[in-house]
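Might I ask for a little of your time on a matter of protein folding? Here, with my thanks, is the record as I have it:
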Amino acid sequence: MTKTTKVAYVFPGQGSQFPGMGRELYNNFTSSRAIFQQADEVLKFPLSRLCFEGPEEELRLTINAQPALVTVSFAYLKAISEITGTNKLPPPAFMAGHSLGEYTALAAADVIDFTTVVYLARERGRLMHEAGLRIPGGMAAIIGLDEILLNEVCKSTDTWITNFNCPGQLTISGARENLTEAMGLAKAKGAARVVPLQVSGSFHSPLMQTAMEGLAQIIAKLTFRDPKVPIIANTTAQPLTHGEQISTELTTQLLNGVQWQRSIEFMISNGVSTFAEVGPGKVLTGLIKRINRNANILNISDVLAVKNLEGS
């Protein structure tokens, strides 16, 4: 990779977690080990053990999955810096995170420090889980249905399109009974597949109102620095460049859809040719390839991928 290559770092969201994630980072990189230790201290329970050992059903809980993913993704970022130094990789032109991944971007862009970010992620997960208990709901991926037709489905079932992931892949959210109706109607209108997601509520929809109100109270006590690298906002697919924009984005994000396809297209239109997915799994790698098959993607989701950067 040349120093003139324009790179964006992207960070995965909930759903990418799995037991065992981060264990090799902890064992191989001093900087990563420090991140896990900080998370354990801030949250006052052994999050690192939950990442490394599970059980899966506990790790999958929203209140645990969110701080766990932020921690592991940021630990990967620290490992990259440790092994490559500051001059081996081109600095990112943009950063973006899918839903929860936006919180990792906050730490990566030095908007707030990691310990504050992992605390915020834990509180976000708790508030979203509690909102889901008040109004039981969920999410479903809708594959192969036109957005116009899916909008019609949502309007007739009181549900919402909540993730605009890539061509042919959208997700919807809603109260449990409404979501079931919407899934059936989407299939009837020609969706190739309808896949319920393993989440505990109707995320990114108006049913997260109580979570948004709780998060706003926490955020009001914080000060956000201007990002060192522009962060592409989930809700608008436009750059966040000033600290005062951040609090609005984080609260608005809970009630509105993730504009992932538009975010990637914006970065490409502004010269990005290489995306580095930093964190567990390959979800974003797959989505970006479907958005633009010519994009170059580095998937940095294991220790070998980190070590391979040493000679870049």
Notes: The chain has two domains: 7-132+205-311, 136-196. Residues 155 and 182 are 9 Å apart (CA to CA).
